[in-house]
Each structure stands twice: as structure tokens, then as C-alpha cells.
Design a protein that fits this description.
Blueprint (H helix, E strand, L loop, with lengths): L16 H28 L5 H28 L1 E3 L3 E3 L22 H20 L8 H24 L4 H5 L7 H19 L15 H20 L9 H28 L4 H18 L5 H18 L2 H5 L7 H19 L18 H31 L6 H6 L1 H6 L24 H8 L1
Antiparallel strand pairs: 1-2
Helix pairs in contact: 1-2, 1-3, 1-7, 2-3, 2-4, 3-4, 3-6, 4-6, 4-13, 6-12, 6-13, 7-8, 7-9, 8-9, 8-10, 9-10, 9-12, 10-12, 12-13
Length: 447
Amino acid sequence: MASAITTLAADAPTLSAANTGFMLICSALVMLMTPGLAFFYGGMVRVKSSLNMLMMSFISLGIVTILWVLYGFSLAFGTDSGSLIGWNSDYVGLSGIGITELWDGYTIPVYVFAVFQLMFAVITPALISGALADRVKFSAWALFTALWVTVVYFPVAHWVWGAGGWLFELGVIDFAGGTAVHINAGAAALGVILVIGKRVGFKKDPMRPHSLPLVMLGAGLLWFGWFGFNAGSWLGNDDGVGAVMFVNTQVATAAAMLAWLAYEKLRHGSFTTLGAASGAVAGLVAITPAGGAVSPLGAIAVGAIAGVLCAMAVGLKYRFGFDDSLDVVGVHLVGGVAGSLLVGLFATGGVQSDVAGLFYGGGLEQLGKQAVGVFAVLAYSLVVSALLAFLLDKTMGMRVTEDDEVSGIDQVEHAETAYDFSGAGGGASSRSTAVPVPAAASKKVDA
């Protein structure tokens, strides 16, 4: 995210129609990432859980949008209080903002900045859902989402990106969300699954993806939307930094996909479509914090390193016995940590700032700052997320019953199935809206 800029009245920026239009397009691209994530996750689960997985992402668009307008934007980007949280009464309900009022130091309206940041807030809890496939009550998930963004995401966003936030002031570089989004979500996923436990049949029953084409479609939509996620985070398009980030996003994603496939071939003997999709996402995650600080050659290194590390990490759930259903920990937590720390090695000092990493003569100082940001967000999100899950589990219960999990959470929680193989054309068995077939016609069909 672009740094805060203090300007004199004489050279205060004026509204730029070009940057405003660019940022609105980027906001729409980031919004598309949440349905893309829903397809990515929805294809990776078994058929009996696919609708629930889609809904766990989709519901975030509703819940987080309303909370962001009511108070989230104020908490994340309002006037700093103690370097931990923000507040601005004008931002409550977005009611005190002029339609042409500019975000401080930039050429875009506050409304545009607010809606761009809203899309980040929407997708972050949706990322967590992939770790919880098959076994969480939808009502409990919806409440968890509302509580989590309030006590975890909004404060962490202020720490990392808000003027006065303690990690912002420390000088931690997070261009578009390695700490605030991916480490935050990955650590939260780990905290929750340690509380709610494993799926029925984990490590015993095959739990293969039911639709790899959906996975590839979701990965493609994520890749497409990520250009808005990353390039838009400079909040303008005047000085070329956003263009470098755009290029680095493509380069690192390609490198990570190839690295994951190479590791997979050497380790397991095959190039899989799931590996290609997962490798691409790993590269997108890793370049998110680093892409504004590294060169395209550095982006190749960041992507390749992340691709291999994440491919190795997805197997840790079997070694340590935690059921990270769709590898949120292995891809988002590990990829976010890798990308954030690699800033301290590969930052050139010639893109978003003059901060240089170890390999460019900058010593270990920036690596140390990155490590503080990584582990502070990781620890806070892990502990608070686990506590939220524990409280919800002890009050309303987080999990469906074992019988409901085995029979299929789609039918239990949503009264629908993703696919209808009966030929009737409907997916909701609980509805009685089908047109009755005349007896004579029925006999002809039976015959």
C-alpha cells in the first residue's frame, strides 16, 4: 500500500479522473477475486460440500460490506489512537465524507479509497474458510466472520497501512497485503482448525477435489483479479510503480507455478492441474507484499522460492495432524511469510522506496523489520482467532453433527445440492415447486 504523504496547501493534489477511474476498475477486479476464490475452493471439496464452500466465501461480500460502512473503515483508517487502532466519526456510515473529498496526499476521492480497501476486507475472512471445509455450521461461520473482521482484520489493517499504525511507523513493507491479508488469514485458519478439529475420515477416506475445472476457473479469476489487488495498491498510476507491480505479479506467479510443478514431478512423478493452480496462487500470495520493492528478476526468485516452499508445506498437515482442508496454512500463511521476509533480501531500493535488502547492500535491518511484522500479525491472529472459535464452539457450537457431516453439509445447511442427476432440473430437495407430471405422460416416460 502506498505510504502516507504530507503535502503543503500550495502543492496539495487535485482530483485525477484518470487515477479515480483506474482505482474503480481495480476495486472491481478485487471484488471479482472473492467469487473466484469461491470457485477455487468449491471445486477442491467433495461434491456434497461444494455449495457450502461457495457460500462461505460469498457471504463475506454481504457481512463485511455492511460492517465496513458502519465502522470498519473508521477503525482501520481513521485517526490513529495509540498506534493500535483508528477512529474518525466522519467515516462512521461513510456519512461525513464529501463526494470530491480526496484521500490525504492522493488524487483519488476518499470514497474510492474506502471501496478499494473494502474489497481487501471482504476477501480476507473468505480465505480462512478453505481450512474449514465440510464441517462448520453456516450460522457459526457467519458470526465468526463478523467478529473476526472486527477484532482482528480492522486493527491489523491499521497497524500495517494506517498512518500512525505501529508496523507502518516501524517501516514494515507490505505493498498489498502479505501480512494484513495472507498471514492474517493463514494464521487465523490454523487457530480455528486447532479448536474445531479434523473432518470425519481425515487421513482415512479419499477427499479428492470433485471438479478440477472449477479449481482452474477459480485460479484464473484470482490471477486476473490480482492485478487490481496489487497494481492498484499504489493508489494511482502516475509514476510507474504500479506498472512494475503489475509486471512482477505476472512474473512471480508464472515462476511459482513452474516451481511447484517441478517439485511435484520430482517428488510425486506427475504434473497435476491442482498443482498448477495451487502454485499460481502461491506466487500471487508471495509477490503481494514484495512486488513493489523488487525487480522482475527478484520477482522470479520470490515466486520460485514460494512455489517450492508452499508445495513442501501442504504436506505438513499430515505430519502434524491438523486438518487444513484446502491448504490455507500451506499456501497463504507460508506464502505470505516467504514473500514478506524476502523483501528484506531482494528489495532493490529503486521502486517504491529507497529501502534496500541484504542482496542490494542494505544489510539486515529491513529483514529484521519484516520479521517483526510477520510474527506480530501471525501471533495476534492465531491467538485471537482460536479464542473466538473456542467461545463460539462453547456457546452455539461451531460444527455440524458427525451424521450431518457424513451425509453432506450442503443438504443440511442449505437444503440444496450442487448437481442434479435426476433430470428434473432442480437442486433443492426441500422445495415443492416442481410441476406435476400427468399420469399418462409419466407412463410414457417409464416405458
